[in-house]
Amino acid sequence: MTRATSAIRAAVVLLLLVVVLAPLGILIVTSLSRAWFYPAVLPAALDHSAWSDLIFDPAHRAALLNSLVLGATTAVVATTLALPLGRSAALSTRLVRRSVALLAFTAVALPPVALGAGLQLTVLTLGLGGTITGVFLSHLVPALGYLTLVFLGVFTRWDLRLEETAATLGATGVARWRLVLLPLLRRPIVEALALGFLVSWAQVALTLLVGGGAVRTLPLDVLAMLQSGQDQRAAAGALALAIPALVVLGASRVAARQTAAVVA
Amino acid sequence: MNSSRASGKRTALPLLLAGALLGVPIAAGVGYTVAGALGLVGNAAPGGLLRVLDDAAVLRSAMLSLWIAAAGTGIALVGAVSLALLFAGHSRLDAIARSTAALPLPVPTVAAAVAVLLLLSQSGWFSRVAAQLHVIARPADFPALVYDPIAVGVIAAVVWKELPFLLLVALSLQSLRGDALTSAARTLGASPWQTVRLVTLPLLMRGMAPSIIAVFVFVLGSLELPLVLAPSSPLALPLLIQERRQALDAASRGDAYVIALLATALALAAAVAHEWLRGDE
Amino acid sequence: MPSDVRRRGVLAALLIAAVAGGCTAVPAPPTAAELARMPWDSVVARARGTTVVWRMWRGDPSINAFVDAWVAPRVLKEFGVTLRAVSGQGNELVDQLTVEKEAGARTGTASLLWINGETFSALRTRELIAGPWSQVLPSAVAVDSASPIISRDFERDPAGYESPWGTVQLALIYDSARTPAPPRTVAELAQWIRAHPGRFTYDQSFSGITMLKTWLYALNGGAATFAGGFDSTKYVAGRTRLFAFLDSLKPSLWRQGTQYPADVAALHRLFANGEIDFTFSNNQNEAVTKAMQGIIPATSRALVFRDGTIANAHYLGIPFNAPSAAGAMVVANFLLSPEAQLEKQRPSVWADGTVLRLGKLTPEWRLRFDSVVNDRRLVPPESLRIYARPEVAAQYHERLQADWRRMVR
Lengths: 264, 281, 409
What we know:
The structure holds 3 protein chains of 3 kinds. Chain A has 11 helices and no strands. Chain A is mainly alpha-helical. The mean pLDDT of chain A is about 90. Chain A has helices at about 5-30, 50-55, 60-90, 95-110, 110-125, 130-155, 160-170, 175-200, 205-210, 220-225, 230-264. Helix content of chain A is about 80%, strand content about 0%. Chain B is about 75% helix and about 0% strand. Chain B is built from 11 helices and no strands. Chain B has helices at about 5-35, 50-55, 55-85, 90-100, 110-120, 125-130, 150-185, 190-220, 225-230, 235-245, 250-280. Chain B is flat. Chain C is an alpha/beta fold. Chain C is built from 17 helices and 9 strands. The interface of B and C includes residues 20 and 139 of B.
């Protein structure tokens, strides 16, 4: 590697650090400020009211709880449903595989404003309008789309011989799952759970359209804070959104690495 | 079990599951949009396709959204590929670069949008630094990066969010297939740059094509980014649809559903393209 | 039995259960009109233990704090009603209720709505709100029903379909440190804008349209020109003058009039950060309340144009499918009480005008109300009264908004 290349690489890494960390930095400083107007580069004094509001205000806590419950439920249900769907499709004919992949991608690609109005009507007809269950059902759509694609990918590259060998050695269906499939699937399942959680956690458009304003989640709260001029609370909320997401992804990667080590 | 029953089982179950879990909600969503366009629901009058296509505001909105998606995806792609090539090795610096670049991946879009607003607006942090350094005298001297018709701020947020994703795809493609072919090319006497140009890049592009489409279509339909950062004129397409859907006159509402259908058609076309490019991996 | 058949059976059972669940008949709760025919004690008794979801504009933290931290605990304690305020206003509300009506949702989500003007008009026309009910509220006797601003909502008689809650008046907000000699009339403002290009703009939401209407009156001989129902000819003539005025100002506006902030919060943000030198609000006291919250500089002051600015009232309505109309009526009644009206008027809380006629209250209450409006930084009540102009028919508002989007933006 030439000196020029090394210099470029070092410069790029520096640039990367700035570009990636600057948005997080501004959120932190703004969340701790008050009446921080142009052209002040730093706030005059630090103020924790945005954070104490976020933690102690019952309405914000309710929004945070809603987001957590929705995220966890979406993750578990979407994974549970997408796994058999992805597997059965992957082990089926080529046409079926492609059709299911197309359907799954469509669920993800459809613009939420187009999808949301129809889902809203469906949810209302089921008597779930403005409830968290209705919003959960709407989150399930893109989550299922993403996770079906994930499991389709996993099972397309699957080596059936492991299961067949286990069957030849006398393992029953349940035992095959327990001893062969699940250990191998631990990493994709963990990644699917993380992805399902993130899809619901970050969701804005569907929650707005299907929840009709009655179901408050953390991202909706962030928008509401911004649209009511409370930038500090919006910044605190945005960090509260970003940090668990980073944690969830980090944890899933650690778990994946551990599994890989175990399986290897 | 004989083979015909076995193959019947193999196709029936996935199709049934996919139909129930994915097909039904998609049909419900798209169906309502169609019904709205025909004036059957949503207290709308039948939308006019020709009227919509003739409406300059709609065209400008579509152009803006397409521009944001194309520019954002394009810049993110160039950045991701460059980083994948530059930091393909195993040194400490490579690991740091890859981890840093992947950091924005899980951050929700709305959080990124808020941060970009606080940094890039004419009274944002960068503008304030410029003011302190006496490079500018007032906020209006700072370039308009937010609420601007070129949507620089939106594109910046898109790149920040989507580059990590494309980088991960590029890296995984490289590790899966890159090595054998590149070493073959080098053995045959190709220079590093030739290898990149004739082997690595085409490989990456072909492998990344489905992901590029995925990012493009996701950005196209995103509501929260334009809500926070985009200009009021032209209005981003999802916002235009929302505005007209809630308009008090029935004709506008029908038109909103027509526009939503056009956006849906585009998404479906993208889905087909995505599947076709994916091949049978 | 074979696992694939079993799996299909489970799925079918789930689908049937889902459909059946949606079709179960739910007895409809009594409507507001029915409750209005019952004795008040009966309404209060029915309200106890219910939850009232109140769809209101949540774009102001001080209003949110008043509702969440002052009103909600009190209605819970006194009446056993759980109040939950959620976001929803204007076209969004009309849209939501339309969809709910279409879906045949017998009971909706919200029981109480914060509305006025064109929203009320649209809801009434489409039969999306319940009534009449507001005339039976015990606190309603103290309402200033003689006031033209309260007795007519955009020239439409509430007729018991909405209960008055507060009054506001549009005011221009400026920073006394930056702009020691602000313009006092619309003509002076236009002059100022041309002399200081790029330092003024208006927003796209209801405060922006109210400012446009204020200019519409000023340019066309006053509010009286448009009084007495919607007249298309008058509207078009008025709009032509207004849009010509806007056109002449366009190059001198912020971003050369090519971009407009989406809502009043974005407008305040531009003002606070010195990108523009004026902001405004439907609430004349926002200069004080927002400064207290640190959203705009402490040196901010408000003024009303000598040409007049629009004063209007805002109200509470009950949707046709309210789950707890009784709870909503109890809350509306509480909000009309002198206690709640006074609290709302405090500058430290919201500084929203009262709808009560002080003459109908006891001397102690009159004293308390008088002391609250004495803050030096507030616009003097006399100024407000002299320069107040009424709203005109809702159709002017709707047409103006649609035409502005089509022709100006």
